[in-house]
């Protein structure tokens, strides 16, 4: 017989795995268990510091150790007052290069310790912050779409992959057209947001000159988006 792991020949009266492979597998299993326990401990620590546990009857109790506030901002002035979400700067910059740029350079966000999150619902922003602390999200199709937009915009790769996997699992003929349109819009909005956040560098890129020649209408759209921020 051959060991089904290393394929070495051994006694035909024995079936399965040779001693060396068995011991090696056991060692790997113990190492994986140790890594899982360590990750669980880290998640538990993040959950302990999560500021979302400080909501009480709709009133936000801001923990003294948080250093940044995420505030929903809306284009529609009639929208109900925005509820701010406190967070830890170290956590935000560890997840997102965009958050790092905002908070570690001389920008409005670093000076005010406030990050305005455009056109996002209370529930979506809460779920977004909760994911950063717990690596967990309770998804339905609408929440997955909302979180995918945030993950794409703020470059939270793990959350983006998680939402994409969920939405692909829910894809069917009935929702295929809307899913196609949504995917196109997410990329469009994310690219435009990134451009308008770096307008000082726009005219230095060769692609800008090329776009100006081939499709000046898109350049106008970029400046309109920038001026409306």
TrEMBL record:
InterPro entries: BTB/POZ_dom (IPR000210). Residues 66-141 form the BTB domain. SMART domains: BTB. CDD domains: BTB_POZ_ZBTB_KLHL-like (cd18186). Pathway: Protein modification; protein ubiquitination. This is BTB domain-containing protein. It comes from Carya illinoinensis.
């Amino acid at each position: 017989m051959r060991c089904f792991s290393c394929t070495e020949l051994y006694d035909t009266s024995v079936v399965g795995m040779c001693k060396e492979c068995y011991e090696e597998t056991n060692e790997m299993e113990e190492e994986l268990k140790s890594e899982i326990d360590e990750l669980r401990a880290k998640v538990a620590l993040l959950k302990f510091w999560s500021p979302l546990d400080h909501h009480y009857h709709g009133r936000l109790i801001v923990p003294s150790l948080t250093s940044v506030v995420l505030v929903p901002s809306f284009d529609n002035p009639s929208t109900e007052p925005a509820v701010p979400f406190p967070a830890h700067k170290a956590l935000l910059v560890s997840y997102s290069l965009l958050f790092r740029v905002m908070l570690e350079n001389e920008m409005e966000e670093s000076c005010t310790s406030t990050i305005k999150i455009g056109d996002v619902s209370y529930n979506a922003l809460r779920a977004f912050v909760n994911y950063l602390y717990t690596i967990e999200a309770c998804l339905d199709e609408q929440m997955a779409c909302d979180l995918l937009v945030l993950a794409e915009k703020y470059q939270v790769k793990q959350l983006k992959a998680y939402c994409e996997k969920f939405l692909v699992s829910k894809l069917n003929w009935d929702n295929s057209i809307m899913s196609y349109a949504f995917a196109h819009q997410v990329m469009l909005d994310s690219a435009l947001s990134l451009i308008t956040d770096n307008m000082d560098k726009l005219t230095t890129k060769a692609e800008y000159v090329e776009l100006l020649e081939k499709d000046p209408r898109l350049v106008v759209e970029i400046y309109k988006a920038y001026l409306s921020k």
